[in-house]
Amino acid sequence: MSIHPTAIVDKKARLADDVKVGPYAIIGPNVEIGKSTEIGAHAVVDGYTTIGEGCRIFTGVCVGTAPQDLKYKGEKSFLKIGNNNIIREYVTMNPGTDEGGVTSVGDGNLLMAYSHVAHDCKIGNSCVIANTGTLAGHVSLEDKVIIGGLAAIHQFVRIGKLSIIGGCSKIVKDIPPFSMCDGHPAKVYGLNLIGLKRAGITKEAISLLNKAFKILFYSGLSVRNALDNTREAVESCAEVEYLLDFVKASERGVCRGGE
Fold it and tell me: How confident is the model at residue 117 (pLDDT cuts 50, 70, 90)?
């Protein structure tokens, strides 16, 4: 273990033997940090926070401090960060609000400088949040999501897997999986073709998704009718079924094209 002499690490904190803690960092009593994780200078890790293995926490990061929620009255809540995450300068993450509430971050994510993850958010694996991207409370990101810089996500919004959101976008409805979205408020501009190809999605599935997108997001039909028409007109595959189930389950409504 390598702890800079100016760092303050509470005696009750549990750090793996090879954790590195930089100058003036502060580690609270209820923190647990896994193997090969590095905590940068002036970072603060507090609250009931667990950080997995192989993470890199850069200068000025502040994670695990009390949620920015007026409902919070000191309840015991948690922040759980997985393995191999890169958390860049001055990122902030808060734990859940209610007793036992959890904010969770999966594995292999990149959170760029000044991005924010609010209370009770759920982030999957291999996501990227660019500089100053902001997640309000209870936002969920599925796997391999990319959020552009300065984009703001409204509370309780769901972001579907393999979607990409343009910088400075305003997200007030769910973002469908596999989509490319942008705008203020955001609209669907088609499939995230580059992301789909990188993920190994077959040409046949991409073709079927393209047909489904045209009906779901550009036909002008109500969501219910668009779902019914898509099931009738588009051959089923795993990706199309995933898309349809995501749209059907939406409570806030789903971003569509031309709204």
Answer: very high
**For the whole model, what pTM was predicted?**
0.97
Residues 132 and 205 in one domain: no
d(CA 231, CA 119) in angstroms, rounded, equals 36
Q: Supply the mean pLDDT for the chain.
A: 97
- Which positions are catalytic? 119-120, 137
Same domain, 8 and 136: yes
Domain count of the fold of the chain: 2
Last residue of a domain, one of 141, 166, 189: 141
CATH of the domain at 243: 1.20.1180.10
Q: Is residue 181 a part of any domain in this protein?
A: no
Q: Are 210 and 204 in contact (CB under 8 A)?
A: no
How far apart are the C-alpha atoms of 121 and 116, rounded to whole Å?
10
Q: Which long-range contacts link 106-114 to residues 24+ away (Cβ below 8 Å)?
A: 106/82, 106/143, 107/52, 107/82, 107/83, 108/82, 108/83, 108/84, 109/82, 109/85, 110/85, 110/86, 111/85, 111/86, 111/87, 112/88, 112/149, 113/58, 113/88, 113/89, 114/89, 114/90
The residues with which 52 forms a beta bridge, in sequence order, are none
pLDDT of 42 reads 98
Q: What does the pLDDT look like over 202-237, one tens digit per residue? A: 999 999 999 999 999 999 999 999 999 999 999 999
Query: What is the domain extent for residue 204?
Result: 197-248
Place of tokens 């994780």: 37
Question: Please, are residues 48 and 29 in contact by the beta-carbon 8 Å criterion?
Answer: no
Q: Can you give the CATH number for the domain in which 126 is found?
A: 2.160.10.10
Q: Is residue 238 part of a domain?
A: yes
